[in-house]
Amino acid sequence: MRLRGSETVLAVDDDPGILELLREVLKPLGYTVLAAESGERAIEIAAEHKDKIDLLLTDVVLPGIKGQELAAQLLESCPGVNVLFMSGYLCPSMAHNGKGQSFESFIRKPFSANALLRKIRNILN
Question: Averaged over 106-111, what is the pLDDT?
């Protein structure tokens, strides 16, 4: 499986170390990484990069706007965006937007770089 990409990923996590790790893993393989430390900041970034975001990679548990709410809002303004949730706390069946729509794309923390890249490629292909 080809793990390289040219897509734009909006990465959202309140842990600066996770955001840095995501940049270190994705950028050398050709991805553009837009990093946000909160759901609110992610919405601002998405507005600035409308129609350029291919994947929202977000933690489920965030201060303020939670990952599920963020995904639902982003999908309203950018309907074609793909979503990948990550969390160390929840199981995949709990990743939903509160409106009955479930998001099947989920990776449990901690994850390896290879597992993340495979998951991203599966979603984007």
Answer: 92
In a domain, 27, yes or no: yes
Give me the domain span that covers residue 114. Answer: 8-124
CA 122 to chain CA centroid, nearest Å: 14
Residue 41 within any structural domain of the chain: yes
3-class SS of residue 104: coil
Span 51-91, pLDDT tens digits? 899 999 999 999 999 999 999 999 998 888 999 999 987 55
What are the two backbone dihedrals, phi and then psi, of residue 11, each rounded to the nearest 5 degrees?
Answer: -100, 130
How far apart, in whole angstroms, are the C-alpha atoms of residue 87 and residue 61?
7
Count of structural domains, the chain: 1
